[in-house]
Amino acid sequence: MIEETSTQDIDRRIQMAAEAFQFLKNTTISERAEFMNAVADHIEALGEELLTVTHAETSLPLARLTGEKARTVGQWRSYAKAVAAGIYTEARIDLARPEKQKGDLRKYNVGIGPVVVFGASNFPYAFSTAGGDTASAIGAGCPVIIKAHPAHPQTSQIMADAITTVIKAFGWPEGIFSHITETSYEIGTYLTQHPDIRAVAFTGSFTGGKALFDIANRRKDPIPVFAEMGSINPVFAFQNLLETKAEALAKEYIGSLTLGVGQFCTNPGVFIALKGNPLDRFINALKEEIQEITPAKMLHEGIFESFEKNKSIAIEQPDVELIASVHTESTAGSAAAIKTRAKNFINNRVLSEEVFGPFGIVVEYETDEELMEIARQLKGQLTITIAATHEDVRDNGALITILKDKCGRLLFNGMPTGVEVVYGMQHGGPFPSTTDSRFTSVGPDAVKRFVRPICFQNWPDEFLPDELKNDNPLQISRMVDGIMNSESLKLQTT
Ligand code: NAP
């Protein structure tokens, strides 16, 4: 049960967000970009204290936090630049053609409305209170109600304060950003069901994301939920490459698998290769490499416990062989890897479940048919990696065709951890890796999730939004009669 005082407080904040939405609708893209750059400046200026607090709350190393903070600042700035350039405005103008009885049609994107963001535990800066979801929603012109992740409450408060300071400095309505610190599924449910909420962004477990997606779809007026959930990010390693670099590949793989104690959604949890000597060499090298990995504390007790539980479940499955496991008495996340045959992997769905942490499964296939069946049975993934030579790719065209349907990002060599914040990035994938494969939650294109198009038919120029006016006062790139340009239209105004 939620306390009545909590629901009253949430109702009040959402009411403020709904009012702030009316304000944001009238801001220009350059005003919103200016706001976003000011938030970036404030976060950048947060000093050692922030890092110390987050380190104490999450156990993440200071070097990693320093990098993540810079990434977060970069997100606000790059999304601001994209917003100011009008990229997500997507202005389309089809001029009237009276001789064909066709009217004037002009379309552009507007913010969808107040957005609830569920902060993630594994990225206390980049995917939490002042993270990419918040930046992209505000960039789209949507107020944000953040449901802070309970694993880093003080960090969340510092970030929330930075945004609130900027709101005050700009004299903008308070309701543009609200910070909800209470922890309970009922609060998350209440927020998602609230009639004034127009979208939800989430990063976390499949259970959490799917629960919120279902709640949103059961509403009288369903709303989109952009949930980024689990993924096992398979690596398909092919023979020519494996023969030449089995040992180097094992080092690369284990580095990615155990990076940040395996607490990345792009962690490569499954490695698939043909049975034989090159794979045996890979496994032997993996065995040695794993022993070198020092167990480290995980983000919070709950994540550690579910890691231990899910790792044990996988290890105890029939027809599974333990490759290596680092033993420790402490409550640190210790790496492990197992091996199984393709048939077992295909038939036992438990082995396709994400184990969030430093844990990998090597799948050994014996025939091309087994390999194809693995691909066909794969659920939607954030990433799939092809470890291959050019010749391997040429020899496996049919398989790669299937894999393209199964992921948001297909890598040719390298490892999937390390998600660049750029336009070309796709961080999302077919269900169940996300609830909407059409969008990314990393890179400026993340803004697209929170806009919707509106078309104006036959409106006089003076009443059109600046984005669609004849003289193009924002000087943005627009599609006019099918051709992109940034020019003003030399037309007679009506
Ligand atoms: P989580 O359990 O999914 O929780 C994330 C947020 O969603 C929390 O704020 C939580 O609420 C809320 N929530 C979860 N289930 C809900 C429900 N049924 N109804 C309403 N709200 C709900 O994620 P977590 O705590 O970060 O970690 C748990 C597991 O998530 C990990 O073991 C891992 O498997 C996975 N994970 C995946 C990723 C990824 O990138 N895909 C990232 C982090 C974690 P409360 O705050 O009230 O608890």
Automatic annotation (TrEMBL):
Pfam families: Aldedh (PF00171). Residues 3-429 form the Aldehyde dehydrogenase domain. Its EC number is 1.2.1.-. CDD domains: ALDH_KGSADH. It is an enzyme of class 1 (oxidoreductase). Transmembrane segments: none annotated. Keywords: Oxidoreductase. GO terms for molecular function: oxidoreductase activity. SUPFAM superfamilies: ALDH-like. InterPro entries: Ald_DH/histidinol_DH (IPR016161), Ald_DH_C (IPR016163), Ald_DH_N (IPR016162), Aldehyde_DH_dom (IPR015590), Aldehyde_DH_Superfamily (IPR050740), ALDH_KGSADH (IPR044151). PANTHER family: ALDEHYDE DEHYDROGENASE-RELATED, SUCCINATE-SEMIALDEHYDE DEHYDROGENASE, MITOCHONDRIAL. This is Aldehyde dehydrogenase (NAD) family protein. It comes from Chryseobacterium gleum ATCC 35910. The lineage of its organism: Bacteria, Pseudomonadati, Bacteroidota, Flavobacteriia, Flavobacteriales.
